[in-house]
């Protein structure tokens, strides 16, 4: 039985990862300061004797004996990470240092959940891992984008300097149950607005694109990356290469929810990416032919049902 630490474990992605790793007969320590994570997401895990929840901030010092570390700590939606940008940067940078030091002491394998946001507003499309990105270092999104970029550098340098077994994944837009109602990302926004028959807010002309993967596909990719050979460190894109415009997504959700919502158009936020689509050849070739299996319509059905219950 492996002893595994998951930071951000009560969050959207972390809670699903905790559940999956417990089902594979591991002992899971879930760290979360509950800034955006919720005890509700892990409520059904708390009675499991192989699950231990700690309300803790990764910026603080701590020590646990562990075999593997998954670092998912950091608010991921713009309203949340922009609310306290300095805290966001500290979480990404100081948190990464603390966890890398813990991995060094334990000789543990450690995975960094990075993001497609490191590509910024890309001028290369679709985005391969070799693309260095087009990021504004002093904009409203910079605390998150640059924090994650710095964390990747730390993982690279710790791995090279101390021979730590490091892994880096770059997560593209992900959705599914356990998202917060006030998450602020496009799928949750559209679904909540549609279910309430409110106007659906589209930023810009609605022709900007995103690629959406369902949470189960992402969790499978994360675990395969952790279990991959030590010489494959990444970074590796984990995302769905099927691309949708915001207009198409809004119309699809209105139809699936039988909503009376109308579309309204607002100014595009500063530095908001116009295109987002991953190349996933690296993941397919190195992670046992990983690729997303759940297509958007199927994933949206369960996500819409989840949000119906959340707002009831």
Summarize, please.
The protein has 312 residues and is of the alpha/beta class. The protein has helices at residues 12-23, 78-83, 85-106, 142-162, 186-195, 215-226, 246-256, 281-286, 296-311, and strands at residues 3-7, 27-32, 51-55, 68-71, 109-115, 166-171, 174-175, 200-203, 209-211, 213-214, 236-238, 243-245, 263-266.
Give structural notes.
Helix content is 37%, strand content 17%. The chain is an alpha/beta fold and 312 residues long. It has a domain at 3-175 and 214-240 and 278-293: Rossmann fold, CATH 3.40.50.720. It has a 7-stranded parallel beta sheet with strand order 3-2-1-4-5-6-11, with helices on both faces. The protein has a two-stranded parallel sheet with strand order 7-10. β5 (109-115), α4 and β6 (166-171) form a beta-alpha-beta unit.
SSE diagram, text form:
Elements: E1 3-7, H1 12-23, E2 27-32, E3 51-55, E4 68-71, H2 78-83, H3 85-106, E5 109-115, H4 142-162, E6 166-171, E7 174-175, H5 186-195, E8 200-203, E9 209-211, E10 213-214, H6 215-226, E11 236-238, E12 243-245, H7 246-256, E13 263-266, H8 281-286, H9 296-311
Helix pairs in contact: 1-6, 3-4, 5-7, 5-9
């Amino acid at each position: 039985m492996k002893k595994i630490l998951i930071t951000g474990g009560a969050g959207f992605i972390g809670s699903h990862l905790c559940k999956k790793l417990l089902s594979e007969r591991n002992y899971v320590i879930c760290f979360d300061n509950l800034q955006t994570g919720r005890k509700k997401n892990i409520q059904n895990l708390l009675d499991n004797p192989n699950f231990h929840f700690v309300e803790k901030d990764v910026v603080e010092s701590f020590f646990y004996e562990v075999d593997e570390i998954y670092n998912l700590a950091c608010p991921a939606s713009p309203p949340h990470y922009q609310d306290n940008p300095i805290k966001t940067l500290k979480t990404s940078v100081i948190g990464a240092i603390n966890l890398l030091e813990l991995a060094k002491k334990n000789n543990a394998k450690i995975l960094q959940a990075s993001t497609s946001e490191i590509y910024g507003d890309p001028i290369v499309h679709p985005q391969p891992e070799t693309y260095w990105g087009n990021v504004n270092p002093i904009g409203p999104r910079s605390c998150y984008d640059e924090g994650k970029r710095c964390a990747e550098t730390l993982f690279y340098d710790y791995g090279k300097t101390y021979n730590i077994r490091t892994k880096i994944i770059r997560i593209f837009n992900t959705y599914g149950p356990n998202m917060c109602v006030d998450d602020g990302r496009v799928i949750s926004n559209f679904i909540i607005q549609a279910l309430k028959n409110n106007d659906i807010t589209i930023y810009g002309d609605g022709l900007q694109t995103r690629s959406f993967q369902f949470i189960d596909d992402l969790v499978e990719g994360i675990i395969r990356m952790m279990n991959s050979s030590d010489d494959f460190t990444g970074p590796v894109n984990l995302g769905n290469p099927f691309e949708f415009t915001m207009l198409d997504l809004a119309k699809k959700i209105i139809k699936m929810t039988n909503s009376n919502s109308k579309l309204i158009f607002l100014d595009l936020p500063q530095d908001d990416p116009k295109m987002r689509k991953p190349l996933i050849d690296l993941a397919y070739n190195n992670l046992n032919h990983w690729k997303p299996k759940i297509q958007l319509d199927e994933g949206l059905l369960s996500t819409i049902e989840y949000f119906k219950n959340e707002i009831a």
